[in-house]
Write a structure and sequence with these properties.
By secondary structure, the chain is mainly alpha-helical. It is 85% helix and 0% strand. It is built from eight helices and no strands. It is elongated. The mean pLDDT is 88.
């Protein structure tokens, strides 16, 4: 699994990996509420774009930390950097659900699409779970 690779190849302890999960999930949960409100208040496509680019930037920063072995240089600083990036990553990732659904809902506004919107959104929301099952 990825966690085993991070432990063996990148040198992360199981404690830091659990902290990464906790921080990501906490900011993801809070970010769903905050980003949903931001998407309703401001232009949703702009909020979605910020979330996508922010997620990409966070992934890049995580890779920079692995390439330059931040943990090997200074363990406390490296772990803090990764946890800080994961904090932001959870928030940026959370734009996809509420804001992406609102943007997608605007595509289905003609009378025929409105009738089948529930089926469309049902397939849209189950793709993540089907991917998780397939990957496992």
């Amino acid at each position: 699994t990825v966690k085993q690779q991070l432990e063996k190849q990148a040198g992360f302890s199981p404690l830091v990996l659990s902290e990464m999960d906790t921080i990501f999930m906490a900011t993801y949960a809070a970010g769903n509420i905050i980003n949903g409100k931001l998407g309703d208040t401001f232009n949703p496509t702009t909020i979605l774009a910020i979330g996508l680019f922010g997620s990409g930037a966070c992934l890049f920063l995580i890779n920079v930390a692995l390439w330059f072995d931040f943990v090997g240089f200074n363990e406390a600083l490296g772990n803090f950097f990764i946890l800080a990036v994961y904090f932001l990553f959870g928030f940026f990732q959370a734009t996809g659900g509420p804001v992406g659904t609102a943007v997608m809902g605007n595509w289905f506004c003609d009378p025929d699409s409105v009738k089948s919107r529930g089926t469309i959104f049902g397939f849209w929301t189950c793709h993540q779970y089907c991917g998780d099952i397939t990957a496992a």
